[in-house]
Each structure stands twice: as structure tokens, then as C-alpha cells.
Amino acid sequence: MPIIKRPHSSHSPSGEDRDSHQRTPGRNAASRDAEAGRRSFGARLAVWFVGLLATVAVVGALIVGYALVVMGPQLPSLDVLTDYRPKVPLRIYTADHVLIGEFGEERRSLVRFQDIPDQMKKAVLAIEDYRFYEHGGVDFVGILRAGVSDLMHGGASQGASTITMQVARNFFLSSEKTYTRKIYEMLLAYKIERALTKDQILELYMNQIYLGERAYGFASAARVYFGKDLKDITLAQAAMLAGLPKAPSAYNPVVNPKRAKIRQEYILKRMLELKYISQEQYEQAVKEEIHTKNPGNEYSVHAEYIAEMVRQMMYAQYKDETYTRGLNVTTTIDSADQDAAYRAVRKGVMDYERRHGYRGPEGFVQLPAPGDERDQTIDDALTDHPDNGEIIAAVVTDASPKQVKAQLVDGTQVTIGADGLRFVATALSARATAATKIKPGSIVRLVADDKGNWQITQLPQVEGALVSLTPQDGAIRALVGGFDFNKNKFNHVTQAWRQPGSSFKPFIYSAALDKGVGPATIINDAPLYFPASTPGGDAWEPKDDDQPDGPMPMRLALEKSKNLVSIRILSFIGTKYAQDFVTQRFGFDADKTPPYLPMALGAGLVTPLQSAGAYSVFANGGYRINPYLINEVTDARGEPLSKAQPLTAGRDAPRTLEPRNAYVMNSLLHSVATAGTGAGTNVLHRSDLQGKTGTTNDAKDGWFAGYQQSLVAVAWMGYDQPKSLGSREFGAQLALPIWIEYMQRALRGVPQAEPQQPPGVTAVDGELFFTDMMPGNGFVASIGLDSANPVAGTDAVGGVGPAGMTPPTVPPPSVSSNEKKQIMDLFESNKP
Predict the structure, then answer these.
(1) Over 447-481, what HEC string results?
(2) Per-residue burial over 217-253, b = 16 or more CB atoms within 10 Å of its CB, e = otherwise
(3) Measured distance CA(418)–CA(440) in Å, rounded
(4) Is 255 helix (H, G, I), strand (E, B) or coil?
(5) What was the pLDDT predicted at 184?
(6) Strand ranges for 614-656 from DSSP E
(7) Is 149 noted as a catalytic residue in this protein?
(8) How far is CA 70 from each of CA 56, 60, 73, 232, 611, rounded to the nearest angstrom?
(9) Which of 33, 377, 697, 726 is deepest in the core (most CB within 10 A)?
(10) How far is CA 165 from CA 61, 86, 191, in A?
């Protein structure tokens, strides 16, 4: 066999190269095998995945087919969506559309799609369903993603609900996460998409979704969390609200502000990515500081008594539908006036409290050593002593005559210096009783002064009230029924029947004007004499505690609120005539205004609202109007249900007082307000104010009723269980300051307005007379100047005065023992 020789190479491989050369074919083969294996695995995986998808598709198709056959016919009607009538609460507004009350199980405000801000819609779409306007109700990409996630996690943990599916769930299904419910959800979504437009679906979603704090829908949430109408929220606030549907409690900006902020920024980022907002808008929104509404101050205006009045009136008409029908009630209240009235009553009551000394701490708690246990103890103690507006509860941690330290419910430590301790100086002294002493553990009340410095004060026991109205038609402008509605729901404006005291005297004087008595009539302020009413009976001569001033003009008598003069006037005109006059002309109740002499001193019963209505007759020139509170009622869609049609002075209100009578009474009451017991009104620097003070027996009630031509207001102060307000307290100190504080704001910018002198009034020597009752012709010149018969009508003129006429015959009054007692009681302290 021939030997085959290899060609000689001058570059023979080394052993290493030879070995390497010999190994290369094997390695390449292995690499090729691995590569083939990988390709084979990838192919198998792809086939498996395609198969999985096919299987899912087939199973899905079978399920959908089954669902269509079995579940489809069972799907509910969409009437609840196409005729959307949610449970919308009763909402109450001021005349200038400030919300002051809401009653219902759910807080909800219906808002139309076109009224929802664009940034609010985009914020919701960005986080909930950015493909909302592209899919047909079910987002299969999202469902597949959620399905894979669920398989990996071994259960239905991830949702892929579109907004349409959420609408289906919110209206028809439970929130449990099961595949069966998801199928129903999908089928309903398709049905909804066929029945409604996309805009209609989004409107339903944004009105129905629960967003925490009993708020349903974004309009309600905007008010609850930010105190704003939805149209007024910022981009930053919109993004924060959009984060609530996922977990209303977890992302509540009031309770969990940090988590809410993180969620908000994520939503803003999504909006930026989707080009819903610009980079500049994004940056501004992220930087914006969010201010949430204090949950303890739900409404910007304190009108709780008004809201309750409206609720009762609506319930009387609509029964249980009141709380679900979505009634919107617009009242006659002016929000600025209401705020001024609330502040005036609070200030007046607290000023009274400061004049009458400190009663002692509200309670006491044994304090542990400083630390968490002490904080918890204080927190628990203050739970039973909630803050009352600006009057804050605190627990004293250290006390001395010159300084007190206290802790608030939120853990804040405050220090009260010497200036803030004047009211409680006795309670910090060594002579303090156990009940009044302030020491560590004492539960006290604090209030900040105008400079922000703390003072120790106390919650009042006395009550106050104020009501104001427009005298031309009776529209109530402001109403504060008490110091604090949450503490005492009794409405003193409408429910408190109290003696009006001297504030009732003007109505007796008005009745006397029509009997010939006038501002210039001289009336004797001297002890009265009542002859025996029966044979063998005793004569009676009551005396007022005040020093009698003798004969004086009727104008001066009203200025000084002279009791004896008022009784002489009433005795002269007759009690039955006076009762008929005040009930028919001014609207007082006959059964609460009995025809006896104590009526002259305000011994009947009136409410502040009734008094305001009566004084309106003077203010509007003689027309009797009916106070009213509700201006308009509409349904949830804004359709009107009722509209007030008040009687208006000079148009359709009945005239009950002659213009000349009203004009002269205006003049008399102006004298009271400028030179008499109501002269405190001069601080307002107006020349068009009228009014009358009133203090009842033993100073149990303090009143001031007064007006300017465009506004009547009545202020009252007293205890729920009538008791003395103090021997040195009168209407001028109790109620007049409240009235002044209120009017100072309410009349700001209101021009001076003085009534025009009507026909039938003549001025002589600076005094007013009825033209047909001039001196010598029907005018009563004097009353009570004949010492032999000082009360009966026979002494009215009788040649004593300048009239020289025969007086009207009025029989001497028969005074019962009960009347005698009442008059003497009223004399004791019936002051101006």
C-alpha cells in the first residue's frame, strides 16, 4: 500500500495548538446543540403561550357564550341609570347661595357633565381608565394583564375594571372580587355602553362613586374636603380627589395627608405622561399646598338654628322624601348678616359671663407623670369636653397665680400669662374654694384674644338670641336662636315665650296716639291711686321703686321708660281697647296679652320673632307683614317646586296703622335711641335709628328691639329657666350691645334713610301733633294731674291742660289682687 505523505509545513503547530485544534469541532457541536435546544425551548414556550392564549380564548368564548345564554337574560334593567334618581340630601342655602345645612343619609350633589371641570375629568380618567373613550366597556388588554397577575398570585387579586364596569358594580353588584361577579360586570358594561353615551356614563360615575366622609360624587367630596364648589377646585385638588375611589379611607386627605399626597403626585405624573397637562402645570400642582377643611367646622356660616327650622318645615310637607329627594332650599338669610349676628350673640353672652365671675373648672382628671400615659389621659378627658367654636377645652398641667400651663386635645402645650388670668384670679389664689380652684388636672376653657394671647374663660349658662328681618316684606336676614346649637337646640327666637318688659311700651303708646294722646301730652309720673272696685273694698296706691319725676311730656316718659306713666296711659285708653289694638295692628296673640294693667309694663308673652314682626309695622310705615324664611325650593335637577310670595308693604300687605301714627312713633322711638335708654346706639353715628330697651321683673330678661328703615332687629338675653340676670343688669347692658354689634356690620354701606312726614301730621313748636287732634281740638293735654282722680279718664283734661275739652269717659279700672301683685313685682325691677 503506498504511503501518502502530508505536505511539509514550515509552521508546524505546537502541542497546545494541536490540542486546541483537535478540541474545536467538539465544542462547536455542543454550542450548536445548546443553541438548538434554546431555539427548541423558545419554540415550545411560544407554542405553549399561544396554546394558552387559545385555550383562554376558547374558555373565555365558552364562558361568554354561557354567560350570554344563561346570565344575559338575568341582567337587571338599566332604568336606574337611564332615569338616575339617587338619594340626594336636603340642602339649605343662604340667599347668596352659601350652604348652611344638609340632611340625609348620603352627602351627594348632582352635577351635570358639562359642569364638571375638565381637569377633574382628566384626573379621573388618568388613574381609573385612560382608554375609556376607546374601548367598548371592557378593556381586554387590562383584563389579560390582570388575569396573568391573578394566576401568578393564585387568586383574583388584581382588578381591571373600566369606568363602565365600575358603574355596573356601583349600581348593581357587590364589591367582592370573584370571577363570576367579574363576568356579570362585563356583561352589564356592554349593556350600559349600548344604552348610554360615554359622557353619560362618566357623569353617572362621577356622581355615584363613594369618596369617604359620607360623600358620594366628586361635587360633594370637593365641598367636604376643601369647602369648595367643584367648579372652583384647583388641579392639585382635583388630582387628590381622583385618588379617593381606590381607597377612600387610606387616601383621605384629612386623616392621611401623607398617603393622599403620594397618591396625588402619582396621578399628576400619569396626567403628564398622557399629555393631559403640561410640565409647568404639573410642577405647579405638585408644589401647591393643600388646605383641607376642618371636619369640626363643616359650614362656613353658623346657621344651625335656621337649618333645623327649614328641615322641620320641609319634613312637614315632604315627610321621609325630605332626606332623599334632593330638595334645595334657598332661604332669605344673608350670609354676611348671619355671620355678624352669630358673632354678636357670642360676644354679648361672653361679655356678660365676664361681668359675673368664674364658677370654677368644668371637671378634674388625675394626671400621671409626663409621657404617653399622661397624653392619653388628657385626650380621654377632653373627649367629654369638646371645643365650642373659639372656646377651646384644655387640661391644666401647671398652675400658679402668675402663670398657667395647659394642654389641648391635639397635644399642643399653651401658656397663659398674667393678663389672661384676671378673670380667674380668685380661683388661683389661696382663698379659692375646692369647687373653684384651678390646679393641675383641672379642665378649663381657653379663648384667644385679638393678639392671639390665651385667656381662661368659661362656657356660659345664660342664653342669647337675635333675629333681623326686612320690614318691607318680612324676609328674615339673620337668626341666631342661642349661644350654641349643639349645646342647646331650643330656638329662643321662635320658641321662647318671654315677657317683653319695657320693649312692649311703644305698642301701648301707639294705641294712645289714636285716642288723642300725643308726644306733648303731660303725664304725671307720680304714685297711682286706684279707688275701691267694690263697695267696702280697699283703695290701692302702688308706688314704683324709681324716684317719681312728676309731670312730664309723653316723649320724655318713653325716653326714660317710666312705669307709672305707662300704667296711666293704659288706664286712660282702656285695657280692652289696648288689647284689641296690639293684637289686630301688630299681630300679638290675644291669649298671651291679657287685657289688664300689667300689660303696660310688658307682662304678656312674646317671642323675639314676633316682636321683630311687630316693630316692622313702625319701620315700614304701618303695614303688617309676615316674617318668612324660605324663598325658594327646587328639586335635585333645579326644577322649582315652590316660590315665596310675601306680602309687601305698599303693595299687597294690609295697612294696620295709619301713616301718621307710624311716623310719630318713629319720632318717639328715635328719641329713645338717641337721648333715652337706647342712647348706646349713638356709637353707630347714624341719625336714622329707632328702638326700645326692655328689662322684665327681677331682670330675668333683657331686650332691645330697634330698626333702621331697611332692617329690624331684636336682641334678647336670659336663662332657659328664668332667673335674675343680676340686680344691676338691664336691657341696655344685656341686649343693646348685641344689637349694636350686629347693626354695625349689617348697616355698613347702607345710606341714611329717614321717613317722609305724611299728611295728617303737623309740627308745632318742635313737637308733632295729629292735624285733626291739635291743642283745643281733640288733643289730650294731660293725664293724671288732678290729684283727686289721678287715674280715671275724668282727669285727663278737665281744664287742667290747654285743650279745654270734655275728656272721654273711661271707667276706673278694676284691679284684681293678681294684677296688684304683678304690678308690684314689675315695679321692683322693670327698668329700661
Answers:
(1) EECCCCCEEEECCCCCEEEEEEECCCCCEEEEEEC
(2) bbbbbbbbbbbebbeebbbbbbbbbbbbbeebeebbb
(3) 17
(4) coil
(5) 78
(6) 630-634, 640-643
(7) no
(8) 20, 15, 7, 48, 72
(9) 697
(10) 19, 19, 10
CA-to-CA dists, residue 396 to 285, 382, 388, 419, 617, angstroms: 42, 11, 18, 17, 53
Residues 6+ apart with CB under 8 A from 213: 107, 221, 224, 225, 248, 252, 254, 295
Q: Could you identify the residue written with the cell 322624601?
A: 321
DSSP 3-state of 26: helix
Residue with cell 319725676: 549
First and final C-alpha spacing in the chain: 155
Identify each DSSP E strand in 749-805 by its residue range: 761-764, 767-770, 782-783
Catalytic residue status for 829:
no
Domains and CATH numbers, the chain: 106-297 (1.10.3810.10), 315-462 (2.40.50.140), 466-631+641-829 (3.40.710.10)
Cell 335637577 locates to: 637
Residue 50 predicted with pLDDT over 80: no
Q: Which amino acid is at 689?
A: L
Residue 406 — very low, low, confident or very high, per pLDDT cuts 50/70/90?
very high
Angle at 706 between CA 702 and CA 712, to 5 degrees: 120
Per-residue pLDDT at 823 exceeds 60: yes
Calculated CA dihedral for residues 462, 491, 600, 655, nearest 10 degrees: 150
Please give the grid coordinates belonging to residue 210: 363613594
Name the percent of the chain lying above pLDDT 70.
81
Contact 747, 684 (CB under 8 A): yes
Amino acid occupying residue 222? A
Question: Which amino acid, residue 508?
Answer: I
Nearest of 656, 667, 648 to residue 757 by alpha carbon: 667
- Quote the DSSP letter at residue 503: G
Where does the pLDDT of residue 13 fall: very low under 50, low under 70, confident under 90, or very high at 90 and above? very low
Write down the catalytic residue from 161, 220, 335, 502. Answer: 502
Closest by CA position to 615, among listed 507, 524, 517 = 507
pLDDT at 145: 65
Question: Is 715 in contact with 703 (CB distance < 8 Å)?
Answer: yes
Dihedral of the CA atoms 128, 133, 134, 137 (nearest 10)? 70
Quick one: pLDDT band at residue 5, thresholds 50, 70, 90?
very low
Edge-first strand order for the sheet with 711-718 is: 476-480, 463-469, 711-718, 701-708, 690-695
Tell me which residue of 717, 720, 707 sits closest to 666, measured CA to CA.
707
Residue 711's pLDDT band (cuts 50, 70, 90): very high
Task: Yes or no: say if 311 and 90 are a contact pair by the CB < 8 Å rule.
Answer: yes
The alpha-carbon radius of gyration of the chain (Å, integer) is 41
Q: Is 76 left (phi over 0), alpha (psi -120 to 50) or beta?
A: beta
CA-CA distance, 586 to 623, in Å (whole number)? 9
- Tell me which residue of 207, 195, 186 sits closest to 121, measured CA to CA: 207
Options 128, 193, 203, 559, the catalytic residue:
128
- The grid coordinates listed for 613 are 314682626
C-alpha to C-alpha distance for 715 and 317, rounded to whole angstroms: 31
CA dihedral 554, 558, 563, 565 (to 10 degrees): 0
Q: For residues 479 and 281, what is the distance between their CA atoms, to the nearest angstrom?
A: 44
Distance of alpha carbon 292 from alpha carbon 472, whole angstroms: 41
**Sole residue written with cell 381608565:** 129
Return all residues near 164 (Cβ < 8 A) that are at least 6 apart.
132, 137, 138, 189, 192, 193, 201
State the Cα–Cα distance between residues 620 and 641, nearest whole angstrom. Answer: 30
Does residue 416 carry a pLDDT above 90?
Answer: yes
Number of other residues whose CB lies within 10 A of the CB of residue 522: 20
